[in-house]
């Protein structure tokens, strides 16, 4: 099974000690997002974890712990954008994050660190020219440190709509997307990057941009050298191309405070959950309670029993 760590929060940035304790103990308890009393026990044995996909904006706290992943295939989805504090409130400076990206790639290889430039949003300050300029700066800095970039465009989730209105952010029009992506594609090509979209309906093949999969069969097979028999994840959005996975994160636990975040519904909830954090607990928020209902998640490796791919 593939482990997603995590679409719901930034485990490398805030919870790496907890994560490695979970690997050591061999399991994690993950609450049902709709009923926090119902927990799934996810086993983390290297025999059944085919790959771990990390999602992060700042994995600096993990850099000295990567040796603990030696038994697991893994790669990182690393978001690097150029927004200011009005959009991404609590991130380190861009140049510092670029340096962290390079350091990570030097440790694990460029095929295990994917650059995410998403979500792309437009207003009077963050114009198409703004994105082209900063995309070019970041791409040039990352040349040789990654082989891929994934882009997506802002979604107006109900709980962020008022914030979007306040910052005068609207959905991108098709003409804006095409104009922007034509330039981004040229920049990506100049820097030896494959450019793909994440969960987008629009076709951009004329810009040499294909639909991508963040949890990617081809990449996992390349990293492991084994044939993966996995299906598309039916629990994601219709346009998402990702393989099936199990996410071990919890909503409302990321402290970066990004305006566009779908996984954070309120600052108050994040603060409350952070106060309950115990790095030795089997679950991310709080300790195990007598009222918790735990069920073992059926799990198996998705690798083919046939010979290795290479």
Strands, helices and their partners?
Elements: E1 2-5, H1 11-14, H2 16-25, E2 27-32, E3 35-43, E4 51-56, E5 74-79, H3 94-108, E6 113-120, H4 128-142, E7 148-153, H5 161-166, H6 174-190, E8 194-198, E9 210-212, H7 217-224, E10 246-247, H8 267-275, E11 293-296
Parallel strand pairs: 1-4, 1-10, 3-11, 4-5, 5-6, 6-7, 7-8, 8-9
Antiparallel strand pairs: 2-3
Give a short summary of the structure.
The chain has eight helices and eleven strands. With 310 residues, the chain is of the alpha/beta class.
* Number of beta strands: 11
Q: Point out poorly predicted stretches.
A: none
Tally of helical runs: 8
Q: Order of helices and strands, N to C?
A: EHHEEEEHEHEHHEEHEHE
Largest sheet: 8 strands, parallel
Structural class: alpha/beta
Mean pLDDT level:
96
Which strand order does the major sheet show?
9-8-7-6-5-4-1-10
Helical amount: 25-40%
Give the C-alpha Rg: 19 Å
Q: How widely separated are the two ends? A: 21 Å
- Dominant shape: globular
Strand content: 15-25%
Tally of individual domains: 1
Keywords:
single chain; 310 residues; alpha/beta; 8-stranded parallel sheet; 3-stranded mixed sheet; 11 strands; 27% helix; 19% strand
Q: Can you put this structure into words, describing what you see?
A:
It is a single chain. The protein is an alpha/beta fold. The protein has one domain (2-296). The chain contains eight helices and eleven strands. It has helices spanning 11-14, 16-25, 94-108, 128-142, 161-166, 174-190, 217-224, 267-275; strands at 2-5, 27-32, 35-43, 51-56, 74-79, 113-120, 148-153, 194-198, 210-212, 246-247, 293-296. The chain has an eight-stranded parallel sheet. The chain has a three-stranded mixed sheet with strand order 2-3-11. Helix 4 (128-142) runs parallel beside helix 6. The longest helix has 17 residues, at 174-190. It is globular and about 55 Å long.
